[in-house]
Design a protein that fits this description.
The chain has 480 residues and is mostly helical. The protein is built from 25 helices and no strands. Among the domains are: 54 residues; 54 residues, Serine Threonine Protein Phosphatase 5, Tetratricopeptide repeat. The longest helix is centred in the middle third of the chain and has 21 residues.
Length: 480
């Protein structure tokens, strides 16, 4: 009898972190661990056990099985201490135990936890309550885990919370998780959403879960986004009064103040936050953004006079310092590379700026919006700092050819049109300029103008395959 095989068969039927298809490359484990450590200290909820449960999985990924077991013991103890907890909340914990012991070759212990899971299901089945047997706790914890693990999973997290709410519509935690998932999806640059659903969801979550200061700050930010800043500020101030030292609350409050132009207030809060989480890439990035805003607003701290060169340089160096720390603590933070490169540009450290742009472009699996942003800013750097029109065109085209509607793409389209028309003023037979206008009009779906300019471009550069393919495609489209 093969004990390992017999034990393994039922493991894949368990609903837990090991069967939720969490891709290691899609979750920065050190960053997740930092957030979980913060929540262990500051989170006030009956579902705090989920923090320890996810930490157990992270420790397993890192190869620390001893610590993983300790985390599961903490999760189990928290569940058992709360007499109001449904036994269903132990299902994920026991599933994780079964998997961990299997990986440690302790097959008898693994089988013991498989049986514990089966016994809980039998207990729930006998309750004759379909809502209990549907186990909203599992869907809720899966949604919460996906929300914490990676932005790639926000849509899936939303669906999990929807399933949890079908059986437990008044549950404060699942309402909060659902609101946060929808809010984060709405913040994605290319997420198609006709309304602002998260506003009502965040309000409901705040009503059901008044102790959760983090969700209040998100509601404040949403109201600010909808030009209801005064109303949003009330929620921000209420959250800060409620938990003045909660790192997540401080981060979101600082974001609100920064967007409101209250830079000194934002920095004051962020300095408090960074004293609590000195290795938080998110906090250092926000501090860098605040100093960047000071630079480009061109004002001094306490008056409306223009920044002196000395003050400007001081703020540039502070921004660089914090953006560098951001990448030291999270070297996969795409936007921080662009911000740091742009700040090196302001310091006229062009070699360093170019290195950062090239470094982030070398990343595998960059999403389209990130590629557009990088190429847009790299193009501006090439055009204005390196005075290289050809390199600027290269990067602007790269961004434009990614078929996602973003501000970065629109800006690249404008720059290409301006550059093309400027080149044609110098030389009306410039095939590159004519081809660029053909591309711009093609993207704008101005078919007749695109055909006209590609034909002109081919007149002066008849062997250009790119122009020939584009012209053929456009003429085919025009015929249909």
């Amino acid at each position: 009898m093969d004990t390992s095989t017999d034990t393994y068969k039922p493991l894949n039927t368990l609903k837990c972190h090991f069967t939720w298809n969490l891709q290691k490359k899609q979750g920065d484990n050190e960053s997740i661990e930092e957030k979980l450590n913060s929540q262990m200290e500051f989170l006030v909820t009956d579902n705090k056990y989920m923090v320890y449960n996810l930490m157990a999985y992270i420790k397993h990924v890192q190869g620390d099985y001893t610590k993983a077991i300790v985390m599961l013991e903490e999760a189990e103890e928290l569940c058992l201490l709360n007499s109001n907890q449904s036994p269903a909340k132990l299902l994920v914990i026991y599933g994780n135990y079964a998997w961990l012991y299997y990986k440690l070759n302790e097959y008898e212990k693994s089988q013991l936890y498989v049986e514990k899971v089966e016994n809980i299901y039998q207990e729930l089945k006998q309750s004759n309550d379909p809502n209990l047997f549907n186990c909203p706790e599992i869907y809720g914890e899966q949604g919460w885990t996906l929300l914490k693990y990676s932005g790639h999973y926000y849509e899936q997290a939303k669906e999990c919370f929807e399933k949890a709410l079908e059986s437990a519509p008044e549950d404060p935690e699942w309402n909060t998780g659902y609101a946060i998932a929808v809010h984060r999806l709405e913040c994605l640059p290319n997420y198609k959403c006709s309304d602002h659903r998260s506003l009502d969801l965040l309000k409901r979550a705040t009503e059901l879960n008044p102790k959760d200061s983090e969700v209040k700050t998100l509601l404040g930010l949403k109201l600010q986004e909808l030009c209801r800043e005064v109303e949003g500020l009330k929620y921000i101030e209420e959250a800060l009064a409620q938990t003045p030292n909660h790192p997540s609350c401080l981060r979101y409050a600082a974001k609100f103040y920064r967007k409101a132009g209250m830079i000194d207030e934002a920095l004051h809060i962020l300095k408090r936050a960074v004293s609590l989480q000195p290795k938080s890439s998110f906090i250092h990035h926000q501090i860098g953004q605040c100093y960047r805003k000071k630079i480009f607003s061109g004002k001094t701290d306490h008056q409306n006079s223009q920044l002196s060169t000395e003050e400007r340089n001081k703020f540039i160096q502070k921004a660089i310092f914090h953006f560098e720390l951001t990448l030291e603590f999270d070297n996969s933070f795409t936007y921080a590379y662009v911000d740091l490169a742009n700040m090196y540009k302001e310091a006229k450290e062009y070699t360093k700026a170019e290195e950062k742009f090239n470094e982030v472009l070398s990343f595998q699996n960059l999403i389209g919006e990130d590629m557009q942003q990088i190429h847009h800013h790299f193009g501006k750097f090439a055009e204005y700092c390196k005075k290289s029109e050809s390199k600027a065109i290269h990067h602007y085209k790269k961004a434009l050819l990614i078929p996602i509607s973003t501000q970065d793409r629109m800006q690249c389209e404008k720059r290409l049109e301006i550059i093309a028309k400027r080149k044609l003023e110098r030389n009306p037979r410039d095939s590159i300029a004519l081809g660029l206008l053909g591309l711009v009009y093609k993207v704008q779906e101005n078919i007749s103008s695109a055909i006209e300019y590609y034909e002109k471009a081919l007149k002066y550069f008849p062997s250009n395959e790119e122009y020939s393919r584009a012209l053929h495609e456009l003429k085919t489209k025009a015929m249909n």
